Amino acid sequence: MVLKKQIICMVVILALLSCVASSSKVSASTPRQFKEMEFEKVYNEDLDCDGKDEKVVCKQTDVDDNNKTLTVYINDKIVFEKTLKCQYFTINLGDINADDNVQDLFITARDYSAVCLKTYYLQYRDSKLKLNQTIKRIDGPQNLNMAIYFFGDISDDASFQLIANRPIGDAIGDYECIIPYKLINGKIAAVKSNTYNLTSDSKKYVYKAKKKFVTYKSTSTGAAVAFKVNSGDKVRADKVYVSSKGKCYIRIINSKNVKGWIEGSQDDLFVKGPIWD
Q: What is the reported pLDDT for 57?
C-alpha cells in the first residue's frame, strides 16, 4: 500500500515538472526597456524567452576609414554580419511586446553626427537571428525628417518611442522630439499623429528672444493672439504640430506659463538655440 502511494506521488511530481517545462517559454509580464549594447562585451540574455540565457557578443571592425563590419555572435557562433559604408553601428536590445516570447534587437548603421543610414530589426528564433525588417529614413512619419533618431521608452501595448533630433522646423534650433511607433504583425510602423511632444530635456531649455514676435492660441488661420514676445523675453518650447500639408508649428510657453504657437519655419527669433550632442 505504501509502495503504491509512493508510485502515485512520483507520477504526480513528474506530471507537474512536465507542465513547468512546457510552460517555460514565457516573456516577462512587462516589456523590457531598451539598452544599448557595448562592443566586445559579453551579455547573457534570454533572447527567445525559453528560460535559458544566450551568450551574446557584438564586434565592430574597421574595413577602412569609411566602411565598418558589424558581427553578432550568439553562443560563440556568427549569426549576423554586415559590412556597410558608415562611421559606426549602434545596437539596442529590448522587449517591445511582452507576449510574443522573443526580445527585439535593432542594429543601426550611422554616419557622421549620428545620422541614421538604416536600421535592421531582428529577433532570435529557432537558434537563428532572423531579419524582420530593414528600416530607412523614408519609413518615418510623413513630413518628418528622421535623419537622426535614438531608441526611447517602451510602453505596455507593444508601443515604443524613437527620439528624433529636429525632425522638422528651424525656429528653435536643435531639439529632441518623441515620435511614437508600434509593433504590428511583427513589423514596426509609425503611429499616425500630427502633434509631437518634446523630450523633458528639450522642454527645459530656455530661449531668449532676439526680436519681437507674436504667438497664437491655435494653429488655425486667423487664430487669436496668445501673447506677444519682446526682445530679451525668455520662453520654453513643449510641442510640435505638423499639418497635413507639412507645415510646422511650435508651441512655446512664457514666464507666466501662457502657451502660444509660432510657425516653425521662422529663424533668427532667438539669441541662440541648443546644440545636442
A: 98
